[in-house]
Design goal:
Blueprint: H1 32-60, E1 63-73, E2 79-87, E3 96-100, H2 102-137, H3 145-175
Helix pairs in contact: 1-2, 2-3
Length: 178
């Protein structure tokens, strides 16, 4: 009968013979330092975008996504578009309405469209930065860390893209006059 090896690690299979449990994550292709720099930059841009959106919302008294575009008849009978932004529903149930120029209304709507995208990117980057800790702490539970990261990331991407597409379709309908 052969004697057990003195070192149990020497009996393990070589790394080339062991298949990884998961394919390597795409974020692992970058060096960690570079990946973290990119994520921190995206987080900063996302926070800056949200700050600028909040400030423009406060200055304008609302945003175009909550507002609308309507056609009114001018005194000579020709139709003219009036662009309304709406917000601050604390003051009234309908919200405060303010007429603005077409350019301001378009800017406000386009900025509203960017918020779900940058917020989703911000959340994904925070998930990428937290991923090593999530993987390390979610071992042996009812859901694995990699499954959680993948599922949560997928949900964030789907919700961000769906919200953005919804905002874009509303924007196109408003510009088309429907």
């Amino acid at each position: 009968m052969p004697s057990p090896p003195e070192n149990l690690l020497s009996t393990a299979l070589p790394e080339t013979d062991v298949a990884p449990a998961w394919p390597p994550c795409p974020v692992d292709r970058l060096p960690r330092r570079r990946r973290n720099q990119i994520c921190i930059t995206i987080i900063a841009v996302g926070l800056l975008n949200f700050l600028v959106y909040t400030l423009s919302y406060a200055v304008l008294g609302g945003d175009a996504h909550n507002g609308y575009r309507k056609l009114v008849s001018q005194p000579d009978g020709t139709p003219a578009a009036v662009y309304i932004i709406r917000g601050h529903h604390v003051r009234s149930l309908q919200g405060l309405e303010t007429a603005v120029s077409r350019g301001v209304w378009i800017y406000s709507y386009l900025h509203s469209i960017t918020v779900p995208l940058t917020s989703g990117a911000l959340i994904i980057c925070m998930l990428v930065l937290a991923r090593p800790h999530i993987l390390a702490t979610m071992r042996g539970g009812w859901i694995g860390g990699q499954t959680f990261v993948t599922a949560f990331g997928t949900i964030v991407v789907l919700v961000s893209v769906a919200t953005t597409l919804l905002f874009i379709s509303h924007f196109a309908a408003q510009l088309g006059g429907q």
